[in-house]
Amino acid sequence: MDATGATTSSADGGGSNSKASAKKNSRKPKYSRFTQQELPACKPVLTPGLVVEIVDRYDDSCVPPNYSNNKLKFIQDADTNKSCIRILPVPKLMKKPIYIYYQLDNYYQNHRRYVKSRSDKQLRSKSAANDISDCTPEDKTKDGPIIPCGLVAWSLFNDTYGFSLDSKTIQVNKHDIAWKSDKDHKFGDDVYPKNFQSQGLIGGAKLNSSLPLSKQEDLMVWMRTAALPTFRKLYGRIDEDLPANKKIQVLIQNNYNTYSFGGKKKLVLSTTSWIGGKNDFLGIAYIVVGGLCLFLAVFFILLYVIKPRPLGDPSYLSWNRTPSGQTN
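Above: the chain sequence. Below: its structure as tokens.
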């Protein structure tokens, strides 16, 4: 009994010492809600601002089937019905304001002859009505100078859009679509259209002769010429939300001639975020430039490793040479 008891006591003592030693050497931190990151916390999940965009090309679809092989005849015939109805589904909730753009492709507003065919002095002041030297061939008629003169104004975009949702008309706000600097400084409030689109070949939209140019914002937007052959210009603004999965009915007057030069016309509805609308150009540009820089960096590193350039001898520098031409 004694032997057994002594043995048991010894074993228990050894186990206690082992546990105490393991606990002493453990690196496990003392448990607390702070060390285990169990305290209540706010964990925001950031989501990028979403730009919803609807793009609809309508120049081909708005030509009647009997004119499908002769679209130019359709657009030039004043007696043909240019009305066209398009149905646009709304993929996601579009919160106001919703911007309406028209997009033209293969239209070179940056052509030198075209972009110079205007008179900025005439646009600014009534006293410069006869400043039409740069506006040929749209400079004057038999009744006097054309105001505004030039090919840029003459080719003013004239397609129109009307919107409805669930048989209810959606109002389009066309105020404040032009730059404030254009309204205040580039288009005069004493300059009124005169002899514009009055005879000969009609290029585009007509202007309200009772309104000064400073009030005709469609013209201001058009006169700010684009640098690239594919561009968008602001048509108006919708100041109400468009619910998701609804269908918008658009009544289009397909008046503008892009068929003679193979151009395309698109209607664009877009929301914006704090950095503007949807545009892939900057992202593509950054990737291209970054990739080019990486390629050049690797190229010059390999060039230096494979064929290092020998260091120059500083004794040949001009300030290390004596007047006699000998080195120091």
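The two ends are 104 Å apart (CA to CA).
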